[in-house]
Amino acid sequence: MEVTLIEKEQIGEHKVIAAPENKVKELHAKLLDAQRLGNEFKSKVSLTFNTEDGPMRVETTVWSLTEKYVQIKSGVLIPLTAMIAVDF
Asked: CB–CB of 10/66 below 8 Å?
């Protein structure tokens, strides 16, 4: 699977869709850790998510995590159902 690296400002240019496999439960602990890293240490993480154009990856700071979304800088929301991987 080829993943395209994009800037966080480009996320809105792509239609985010659900990942082929729902990994919400599997990734929840990593997303909580990513949120803590972002809030306490301003550390960036790599988020891979699914779009109509194929998997995309963004290096960013996670600001918050809700039941349905990961929020990154500038109020950009990525649905949890679209998440493929979280890497530190």
From this structure: no
Residue with tokens 């979280």: 86
Q: pLDDT tens digits, residue range 29-61?
A: 999 999 999 999 999 999 999 999 999 999 999
Between strands 56-60 and 4-5, the pairing is parallel
Q: In Å, how far from its chain's centre is CA 35?
A: 11
Give the 3-state secondary structure of residue 88.
Answer: coil
The whole model's pTM is what?
A: 0.95
* Fold for the domain defined by 4-87: SH3 type barrels. (2.30.30)
Residue 47, SS3?
strand
